[in-house]
Design goal:
19 strands, 753 residues, seven-stranded mixed beta sheet, globular, alpha/beta
C-alpha cells in the first residue's frame, strides 16, 4: 500500500481520499523522462495483474464460485450489513468484487467440492488489495504511455480523462440510491406503457425490483441467523451439562468431542468459540443462501412473477458469458449493463452500486432505440425535470426567493433571442442557472479523449458560455429585461439592486470527477472564454442531499460563494461535490491561495452516516452535520432571515466569512451596542476591517431614527475611506424586538455588481 505522502522523481504523490494526486517539481526534460519510465512499466504491471488473476482462478476452481462472489459482496457493504449482529465485514472494494465475478463468469458454472472458510477468504482479500494497487498504477502508467506515444496529446486533457476513467472504475454510489429512485421515477413515467409493451415491465416495477433484491438477499441471512439460534441454545445446554460432569448420550462422537473441548475451555475462550462456530454456520454456503428466485422477489414486492422474471432476465448475465480474454478491471464490462448473475433460476448482484445505474442506462437505451418522438419527449422531459427540480431545491434552501424558468432576452448584436434556463433572486443576490439533462457515453466514461472532449463541451462548455453570456448581459445594462417563455411575462433585473451574481450549471449526470477538478487554473481545450467567470458546476444528485444538509439560514448561498471563490482562484480540486460540503462543515472552505492546489479528500463519512440513518439503512442515530458557527452569530442569522432588507443575504454571507472567534466577538459587540443605545438613547457602532482578499469591512450600528439611511451613508463613507472591495452594515433601532436591517455596498470594479 502506498504511503499518504512521498516524493519521487521530482514529484510529490499524495493519497487524497480514494485517489492519488501529484504535484510536479520537474523541468520539462525531467517530465518527459518520468513519463517515458512510467510508460515502460505497463507490461510489468499487466503481468502482475495476470499473475494475481491466476491465484484468484485457483481459488475459484477449488471453491464454489458463487460462494466466493457472495462472501466478497457481503464484505463490500458494511452499511447494509451493519444491523446484523455477529457479522464482521472486511474492507473489500466493489471494483475488486466485480473483477472476481467477471473472472468467474469466463467459465461455465461448476460447483467445487470445497466449502469456503475464513482462510481462503483472507488470502483472497490480500490478493485483491494488491491487485487494486496494481490497477491504480496501471491506469497512471497507461496514461503516461499515451502521452509518450503521442507527444501532441494535450496533457491536461489526458489527466482529466484518467481522472474520469478512475472515478468510473473505482467509485460506486456517485448518487444516493433513494435520490436515484426519486429521479428515475419522474424521468421514465412518460415511457411507462411503451416499456411494458416491449420488455414486459414498467419503470416503476423495475425500480421496486432493483430496491428489493438486496433486501431479500440480506433477509435470507437474517433468517439463517435465526435458524442457528436453536443450535446455539442446544450447544450451550450440552456444554453446561458437560461442565456439570454429564454428557448427553444422544450426541455422536464428533459432537461429544466438541462439547467436551468447549467445557474444558475458559469462560472467555468458550464464548468466543461458540460465537465463531455459529457465525461460520451462518455464512457457510452463502452461494446457495443469498441468491434469490423470481418467486421470492415477487412475494416481497407484490409484483407479478412474470414481470420480475422479465426484469431479471433483461439485466442478468450467466456463467460463461464473459469473454475468456478478460483480464484487467475496466469500465466496459458486462456487469455494468447486466448487474445480476443468473444461475439455475437464482439471481445475485455482486455489486449493489451497479444496479440502479444499469437500470437507468438500460431503460434510456431502449427509449433511444425506439427513436422518433419517444426519445424527443424523453429528452425534453429530462431537461424540464432537471430545471424544475433544481429551482425547487434552491427555493427550499432560500425561503422567500423569487424563481423564474425558461427565459429569453435580447442581447445587443445578437440576431435571435438568447436563452437562460433559470433565474433565482433573493434580495440583492442573483443565481443564474443553466441545466443539462444529458450524460456521458460509455466511451467518454472510459476516458476516450475525443468523446470526452465533445460531450463535456456539450454538458459543461456550452452551459458555461450560456450562463456567462447572461451575466454579461446583466452587467452591460442598467436594467436587464427577461421574458418568460410560454406566458410572455416580463421580468426586469436592475443592476443597481444586485450586489452578487452567482452563475450555476446543473447536470443530471453525476460528474463530480469533472466538475470538481475544473477551475480557473484549468487549461482544457473545450472550455473557452474568461475562466475567472467559471460557474459553479454541480449535479442534481448533489443538490438533493444539499437541500437537507444546508438548511440553515443563508448556508446555501454562502457555500456557493465559497465554491465560486475557490474556482476563481484555482486553489482547490476534489473528486466529489459532497466532499467539498463535508470540508465546508469543518473549515468553511476559507482557504487562501498559497501557490499549490489543495486536494480535497474524502470528507463524506459524517454525511453518509447521517443520510443512511435518516433513510433507514443504518439503525444507529446520527446527528446531522452542521458547519462550525458561533452560537451568538446563529441568533443574529436567525433574526436576519426575517429582515425586510434586500441585502440580508449579502450581509449574512459576509458574517459567515468571519472565523468563528471573530464571529463570536462581533456578535457580542453588536449586542453591546444595542444595550448602550437602549440605556442612553444615543447611536453606537463598531467597525471591523478585513484585509484578506481584496479587503472588506463591516459595521454594526444601533440608532433610534433613520437606521436604513444612516447605514447607507456609513457604508459609502467607509468604502471610500478604506479603499476596500465591499462594505457591509447590520443595524437596528434600540427598541425591543426591533427588526434587523442590512446593507451592502461593493466597489464598482468588483467582478459582480
Amino acid at each position: 500500500m502506498m504511503a499518504d505522502l512521498f516524493e519521487f522523481g521530482g514529484a510529490t504523490f499524495q493519497q487524497a481520499g480514494r485517489f492519488i494526486t501529484s504535484e510536479s517539481h520537474r523541468t520539462p526534460e525531467q517530465q518527459r523522462e518520468i513519463i517515458l519510465r512510467m510508460s515502460e512499466s505497463v507490461p510489468k504491471l499487466e503481468a502482475s495483474i495476470r499473475s494475481k488473476n491466476e491465484e484468484i482462478a485457483a481459488i475459484l476452481r477449488t471453491h464454489d464460485p458463487l460462494d466466493v462472489i457472495v462472501n466478497l459482496a457481503l464484505a463490500c457493504h458494511p452499511l447494509v450489513t451493519a444491523p446484523l449482529e455477529d457479522i464482521y465485514t472486511p474492507n473489500v472494494e466493489p471494483m475488486c468484487v466485480e473483477h472476481v465475478a467477471l473472472l468467474a463468469l469466463r467459465c461455465p458454472y461448476c460447483q467445487a467440492p470445497m466449502l469456503l472458510d475464513a482462510k481462503p477468504t483472507e488470502k483472497l482479500t490480500e490478493i485483491l488489495r494488491a491487485l487494486r494497487s496494481d490497477t491504480t498504477w496501471l491506469s497512471v502508467a497507461r496514461s503516461a504511455k499515451r502521452l509518450s506515444d503521442n507527444p501532441a496529446l494535450d496533457a491536461s486533457l489526458e489527466e482529466l480523462c484518467a481522472q474520469v476513467r478512475d472515478n468510473e472504475l473505482f467509485v460506486r454510489g456517485k448518487a444516493y440510491p433513494w435520490d436515484c429512485v426519486s429521479v428515475m421515477s419522474a424521468l421514465f413515467e412518460p415511457a411507462a406503457e411503451r416499456l411494458k409493451h416491449d420488455v414486459g415491465f414498467l419503470p416503476e416495477e423495475a425500480l421496486r425490483i432493483a430496491e428489493a433484491v438486496p433486501h431479500v438477499a440480506f433477509e435470507k441471512i437474517r433468517q439463517r441467523r435465526n435458524a442457528a439460534r436453536p443450535f446455539e441454545s442446544d450447544l450451550r445446554r450440552h456444554v453446561q451439562c458437560a461442565m456439570a460432569g454429564t454428557v448427553t448420550d444422544d450426541l455422536d462422537d464428533e459432537m461429544k468431542a466438541l462439547v467436551t473441548s468447549l467445557a474444558s475451555a475458559s469462560s472467555a475462550e468458550r464464548e468466543l468459540m461458540i460465537r465463531n462456530m455459529v457465525c461460520s454456520w451462518v455464512f457457510l454456503g452463502l452461494g446457495r443462501t443469498m441468491p434469490c428466485t423470481a418467486a421470492e422477489i415477487s412475494a416481497y414486492t407484490s409484483l407479478s412473477e412474470q414481470a420480475v422474471t422479465n426484469f431479471l432476465q433483461h439485466f442478468s448475465v450467466k456463467f460463461g458469458d464473459v469473454p475468456a480474454e478478460y483480464a484487467f478491471p475496466t469500465v466496459r464490462n458486462p456487469l455494468r449493463r447486466r448487474p445480476f448473475i443468473e444461475n439455475d433460476g437464482r439471481y445475485f448482484a455482486p455489486s449493489i452500486g451497479l444496479i440502479l445505474p444499469a437500470v437507468q442506462l438500460g431503460i434510456e437505451e431502449h427509449i433511444k432505440q425506439t427513436g422518433g418522438q419517444d426519445w424527443e419527449r424523453y429528452q425534453k422531459n429530462r431537461h424540464r425535470f432537471t430545471l424544475r427540480k433544481t429551482a425547487d431545491l434552491i427555493q427550499s434552501m432560500i425561503p422567500g426567493c423569487f424563481v423564474a424558468h425558461e427565459l429569453e432576452y435580447h442581447m445587443q448584436g445578437a440576431q435571435s433571442p438568447c436563452e437562460l434556463d433559470g433565474l433565482v433572486q433573493c434580495g440583492s443576490v442573483l443565481f443564474l442557472i443553466e441545466v443539462k439533462g444529458g450524460g456521458l457515453s460509455e466511451a467518454a466514461r472510459s476516458g476516450d479523449d475525443r468523446r470526452l472532449s465533445t460531450q463535456v463541451e456539450e454538458l459543461i462548455g456550452k452551459a458555461h458560455e450560456q450562463v456567462v453570456r447572461a451575466l454579461e448581459y446583466i452587467l452591460a445594462t442598467s436594467e436587464a429585461e427577461f421574458v418568460i417563455r410560454g406566458s410572455g411575462q416580463t421580468l426586469m433585473v436592475r443592476r443597481s439592486d444586485i450586489t452578487s451574481v452567482f452563475p450555476m450549471t446543473v447536470t443530471l449526470e453525476p460528474l463530480g470527477a469533472l466538475t470538481c477538478a475544473i477551475n480557473a487554473a484549468s487549461r482544457l481545450p473545450f472550455l473557452k472564454g474568461d475562466m475567472t467567470q467559471l460557474p459553479w458546476m454541480v449535479s442534481l444528485y448533489d443538490l438533493m442531499p444539499m437541500a437537507d444538509l444546508l438548511d440553515g439560514p443563508f448556508l446555501f448561498p454562502h457555500y456557493v460563494k465559497s465554491r465560486v471563490r475557490l474556482n476563481d482562484e484555482g486553489i482547490a480540486q476534489g473528486f466529489d461535490e459532497l466532499d467539498f460540503v463535508g470540508e465546508y462543515f469543518h473549515s468553511g472552505l476559507a482557504y487562501e491561495g498559497s501557490g499549490t492546489v489543495l486536494q480535497i479528500g474524502t470528507m463524506t463519512h459524517e454525511i453518509d452516516a447521517y443520510l443512511y440513518f435518516k433513510h433507514g439503512v443504518r439503525p444507529q442515530r446520527v446527528k446531522k452535520p452542521k458547519p462550525v458557527i458561533a452560537p451568538e452569530l446563529r441568533k443574529i442569522l436567525s433574526k436576519l432571515s426575517l429582515s425586510p432588507s434586500p441585502h440580508r443575504v449579502e450581509v449574512a454571507m459576509a458574517l459567515l466569512d468571519m472565523p468563528v472567534d471573530i464571529q463570536r466577538d462581533f456578535s457580542r459587540a453588536f449586542e453591546t451596542c444595542v444595550k448602550k443605545a437602549q440605556r442612553d438613547g444615543r447611536a453606537h457602532n463598531l467597525t471591523q476591517v478585513y484585509r484578506h482578499g481584496n479587503g472588506w469591512g463591516i459595521t454594526c450600528l444601533c440608532c433610534e431614527q433613520d437606521v436604513e439611511r444612516r447605514m447607507k451613508e456609513y457604508a459609502d463613507r467607509k468604502l471610500r475611506e478604506h479603499q476596500v472591495a465591499a462594505w457591509y452594515v447590520i443595524g437596528r433601532s434600540p427598541r425591543r424586538r426591533a427588526p434587523l436591517f442590512a446593507f451592502a455596498l461593493k466597489n464598482p470594479s468588483e467582478r459582480h455588481p
